[in-house]
Amino acid sequence: MFFSLMRQWVLSPVRHFRLFHQFVRQEFSGQFAGSLGGFLWLFVTPIVNIIIYSFVFSVVFRAPIPESFGDVPFVVFLMIGYLPWFAFADAMGRASGLLLEKAPLITKVMFPVQLIPMVGTLVPYLVHGIAFFVFLLYLTTQGYFDLMWLWLPVALGLQFLFTMGLVAILSAFCVFLRDIQQMVTLMLTAWFFLTPIIYPLSLLPEDLRPLMMLNPMHSFVQFYREIILLGDFSMPHFQVMVLAAVLSFLLGGWLFMRIKHAFGDVL
Amino acid sequence: MHSISVENVHKDFRIYDRPQDRLVELLLRTPRHRMFHVLQDISFNVPEGKSLGIVGDNGAGKSTLMKLLVGTLEPSGGTIDIRGQVAALLELGAGFHPEFSGRRNIHLNASLLGVPDDDIDAMENDIIEFSELHDFIDRPVKTYSSGMYVRLAFSIATMVRPDVLVIDEALSVGDIAFQKKCVQRMNEFRAQNKTMVFCSHSMYHVQELCDTAIWLENGKIREIGKSAEVVAHYEDYSNSRRVYTKGEEQANSHQQEKPEAVKDCRILQTLVRNVDGELIDTIDPLQDFVMELQAEILNDNVICYFGFALMKDLEEVMSSYLAIDRPDVEHGPFKKGERITVQVQVQAMALRVGKFHVLSGVADESGLLWYDTRLSKEININPGKGWGTLVMRSSWSMQRE
Q1: Do residue B6 and residue B150 come from a single domain?
Q2: Which stretch of DSSP H or E encloses residue B128?
Q3: B108 in contact with A, Cβ within 8 Å
Q4: pLDDT single digits (tens) A38-58
Q5: Cis peptide preceding B333, ω within 30 of 0
Q6: The overall pTM is greater than 0.80
Q7: Is the peptide bond before A104 cis (omega within 30 degrees of 0)?
Q8: CA of A47, closest CA in chain B: separation in Å?
Q9: Could you read off the pLDDT of B345-372 as tens digits, one per residue?
């Protein structure tokens, strides 16, 4: 039972590749359909964000440059953490509405519903992945590059799996409990400020720092910074990432597959 | 070989007092609900190539049964076994994305139904052709009228050539020309030995398109059998209740089925004569009389099947006479501008008291779409001696020993 559910979950994008592909295309271009700027927004949004944050933190707050990463402009330090977080937050923010929006489809057409949280996670990652890629290109022109960057896709993949599991759980629970939509927004704000993204870990009191190992997003952010800025990474963070990704992906998938048959009764 | 077999299926909806109870129950497996039985003891088989109609009042469980067949709902008990690929039209355009063009939606919808991409490319033109949306196919479907929406959805669902087609009220929308094509397409479907499940409030369509029918009442099968019989019994039952809900039903009576679009034929008048050809408005029981319609053909090459019905209360059919059952009656093709008079002689009026109207109608070659219908004046019956509503020819004899 457990294994057949897991197999369905893991294999469904392969088995139903055509539909998966159609869904991704639909969601991806659906985001821009009818808007004047179209795909331009993909690039405008992150650039404007970078400008805002660099103004606030370099000009207003004059945030200290974290010593452990050497002589780095604060904006670069910030953006390395912020862009992957943005992908995570975007996917999580949409999660609660995913199944509710597709209610007519789910109740009237028989298809592998598990594709919906998968697509719902993939699309924000594609969108923000582009922004991250643009940012990395910019960094190479500034003289940053290292072969260790090849670890970045691996880390992003792990973060994607981590997100997908959570999105599956959130989207499924939200069918039964609509309040989750509000809770997610609050939770994401809290999570954002509890993760050392706009501030370096060194600003935290010494005795609180080990607690951060319980926050997988911290490990992801730290990993990206170490790879990009130092060309190296520390093993404990990587272990947390792998563990979090595998656990979330499997647990989320299992929960989703187990309760998806009840969607038709509620939606 | 059964294409669909349903055994002892029942469906209960759990009613929760609070929405979160449902989640708690799913996770902890402790019951926190009350049961509502939507369907009980449903068993039937549909042999391959046959079609099944489902009739019943609103809330009888028709839609739930359709959803169970399609698989979007799971039965609470019992088994449903369906062989082959199922395509469903439960809600027209359920998978459409409003911002996308019709063409993109064809691809999206077809892959939802499980069609490989290459096949979709091959079908695309046929679908556009059938839906008659050439000029609009590259515009977003949110700009479509509901009729266009339906046309596209129906075209896709039937073009993917499923083994089993499940249709919920699809024919009630769309203009008359398209309805005609739908009926044709569904008949082709039957000819190809495909299985069909069809749920409709149009008794006429159920009767003509389905071999067997199920009458659902309060979640149970009240009757299952030949569609003509089941429909007749259901109609009888609805008519007996209609007295109380006359106002409501009147809006849904045959008058509504008149085409709004271009007619191929128009009925000028409906008359009732005695056997000597004189117009009458009263009639004696057991008298012979003649029903007559005069029609004008409005297009070239029109096939017409004429029909008459004796109507009680303007809505209940007491007796019907259809040319489609009579191959010896000419049905065209007729030329534009032709005027046609059709007469049917009826022997021995069997009503003893009351009044009635004669309704005449013209249907297309499928016999399912009425171009036009028209009522005669009210005809009163001169009551004879006796009791009861009916009178029949009778002869007496007596023996004494």
Answers
A1: yes
A2: helix B117-131
A3: yes
A4: 677 777 877 787 788 778 877
A5: yes
A6: no
A7: no
A8: 27
A9: 999 888 888 888 898 888 887 777 777 8
